[in-house]
Amino acid sequence: MKKTLFIFFILMIFALNPLVLAEEVEITMAVGTVGIEQELAERAAEIFEEENPGVTVNIQAAPETSDERRSVFLQHLDRESPEIDVYQIDVIWPGEFSHYLVDLNEYGAEEIADQHFAAMIENNTIDGELAAIPWFTDAGLLYYRTDLLEEYGFDGPPQTWDELEEMAAVIQAGEREDNPDFWGYVWQGYDYEGLTCNALEWIHSHGGGRIISEEGEITVNNEQAVEAVNRAGNWIGEISPPETTGLVEESSRIIFEAGNAAFLRNWPYVYALASEEGKAVAGKFDLAPLPAGEQGESSAALGGWNLAVSRFSENKELAAELALFMAGPRIQKMRAVEGAFNPTIEELYEDEEVLAANPFFEDLYEVFENAVPRPSSQTGELYNEVSSLISENIYFVLTGDLGASTALEYLEMDLEDLLGFETGELE
Ligand code: GLC
């Protein structure tokens, strides 16, 4: 009798096992790999797993630059792959990606959307559907060495590009005596999305508009824009290293962090990394708005990343739950405190721990508020081509192959061909 009972139990265990297994679910989320992004995503995934027994979250590393990430993601989505459930998507992609993504409003986002900045929800809403939930926002900032500014007798960070050029040249000349690798100003000049961001900042800060206006007119070919791009071209080899044409976010951060630059243009995430104990510049730098041209005002490109669920996911419900959890206040706070990733939840800008870790969230709030969007809403699915034309033509100026006025004339013609838009006068 006992033996029969034993065999019965053993059989039951085998019979139930598939049921137990059926409860195990795996969700894959593809995330960015700039700085400590991936590490923070992994930690957040562990918290989600603890709270959702039976769920395994695989964090998949996506390539470093926005352009490469986009290509990899589109390869998956174009072939309707269910391998990745949740994608980290750039603020400029919703128009191009939305047809591959679920409407998060149908998965509970509608109830929490008003915690986020309205402009970001609007940016991610395509034909009434919420393609992605905002995760963190970005704006271009000026990192500067407080110790060197003081040493060379400058009162504070530059307000204008002329001042930046002067300070960069003076500090560079002085520092070169001991450090031949030292440069005045480091930024992202590789031919990619980051160059489009830099170029928009130069142009807008010189009063040269937004390349394509909010109404959809091509405005890039104007005097102030030519002045701005020409100025940037002249930095190379003077106050910026010749290898600027190969620099992206991480490679430029590393130059600054090593103590080899007076100024750096980059996004907020650098703050947390450059402040780490043991870094050569820890405690020796601060942040300011980017400089302005004579006829313009300080301008920061608007960046940021969002979480989206693929239409091809086999677990859309759970994937959406994960995306909303990751973009919720608890994880956004953790990422802000530890990684200086700007929250998209307005309330977190009043959180004491968040502000103590990142005083500039408060001091530079206006920079974030007034950041200038790239023309992705106006150009939708064509934005990537628009941006490639922008960065490509500007790149030729940086390499010395084209003068700024010719490059902007070409860019205007290219954009007209692509968009069939009218060329507009800069108001
Ligand atoms: C940052 C921004 C993103 C932008 C990219 C360009 O990651 O958040 O919006 O496209 O930089 O390199």
From TrEMBL:
SUPFAM superfamilies: Periplasmic binding protein-like II. The keyword Signal applies. Pfam families: SBP_bac_1. CDD domains: PBP2_TMBP (cd14750). Keywords: Signal, Transport. Transmembrane segments: none annotated. InterPro entries: Bact_solute-bd_prot1, SBP. Belongs to the bacterial solute-binding protein 1 family. This is ABC transporter substrate-binding protein.
